[in-house]
Amino acid sequence: MARAKQTKGKCDFCGQEIAKASVVKHLAACASWQAAIAKAEASKRKSEPLYHLRVQAKGQPEFWLNLEMRGSAALKELDHYLREIWLECCGHMSQFSYGGWGGEEISNSCTIGKALEFNDELTHIYDFGTESVSLVKMVGNRKGRPVTSHPITLLVRNIPPVYECKECQQPAAWLCMECVYEDGAMGTLCELHAENHPHEEYGELIPLVNSPRLGLCGYDGPAEPPY
Ligand SMILES: [Zn+2]
Ligand SMILES: [Zn+2]
Ligand SMILES: [Zn+2]
Ligand SMILES: [Zn+2]
Q1: Closest-approaching ligand to the CA atom of 92
Q2: Per its UniProt record, what InterPro entries does this chain match (predicted)?
Q3: Hey, which end of the chain has fewer CB within 10 Å, N or C?
Q4: d(Cα 173, Cα 190) in Å, to the nearest integer?
Q5: CATH number, domain at 61?
């Protein structure tokens, strides 16, 4: 598939575009995020350690997330979140560990607070066949009241990468798996060239959604956060 270059993200609170390396700096100055924190502090939610995580798709720098997670929430909540926003195709097994394959496995019932006591970086593997590997790194923490009632809050997400149509180099919206598998071609198509594309061996064309699992195991989105 065509490699797309996009290292900018969008703040989920103020909507501003931010460089990947400037997220922490942006949030410290983001009026919308700071207002959400102030509002939460005035709420009856319990105060606890909150962890700021950068999730990075291994080998695909254009796919990344910044999340805030309650220290008391179990890793299974993060597994669920990553499946919804990026990964889920057919209910494959997944695993957290320190160091990935061959590393020390961490139970899904372990809280993120406990998991990060020993190491500030975890590896998540989804699907032990056609694997998708996500690196989870703590970039900060604070004590306070969570800004939502959910275990995880989306702070910033990469802007969807722009792919080129393999026929005309215009922005693509679809992916043909037959092109990918049979021809080793990139298989990205614009609306116009998707219309009369001759391939149907591998089913319908797949929408180009914002996920590092595109093109793997028939993944077809929707790549939306669970809440
Ligand atoms: Zn912002
Ligand atoms: Zn699958
Ligand atoms: Zn085209
Ligand atoms: Zn095709």
Answers
A1: 2
A2: MM3350-like_sf (IPR024047)
A3: C
A4: 5
A5: 3.10.290.30
The structure tokens listed for 18 are 């931010």
- Render pLDDT for 175-227 as a digit per residue (tens, 0 to 9): 999 998 887 778 999 999 999 999 988 888 999 999 999 989 889 999 999 99
Is residue 227 assigned to a domain?
Answer: no
Residues 137, 41 share a domain: yes
Query: Where does a domain end: 122, 141, 158?
Result: 158
* CA 177 to centroid of ligand 4, rounded, Å: 6
pLDDT tens figures, 25-62 = 999 999 999 999 999 999 999 999 999 999 999 999 99
Predicted confidence (pLDDT) at residue 1 exceeds the cutoff of 80? no
Structural domain harbouring 150: 8-158
**Which residues 6+ apart lie within 8 Å of 200 measured at CB?**
178
* CA–CA distances in Å: residue 106 to residues 121, 133, 143: 12, 15, 24
Are 82 and 122 contacting, i.e. CB atoms less than 8 angstroms apart?
no
User: 177-188: per-residue pLDDT in tens?
Assistant: 999 888 777 899
Q: Separation of 181 CA from ligand 4 center, angstroms?
A: 9
Domain count, the chain: 2
129 Cα: distance to centroid of ligand 2 (angstroms): 9
What does the pLDDT look like over 103-145, one tens digit per residue? 999 999 999 999 999 899 999 999 999 999 999 999 999 999 9
Counting ligands in written order, the one closest to the CA of 127 is 2
Of the bound ligands, which one is closest to the alpha carbon of residue 176?
Answer: 4
Q: For residues 175 and 220, what is the distance between their CA atoms, to the nearest angstrom?
A: 10
- Indicate which ligand has the atom closest to the C-alpha of 175: 4
Give domain status of residue 35, yes or no.
Answer: yes
Ligand nearest the Cα atom of residue 191: 3
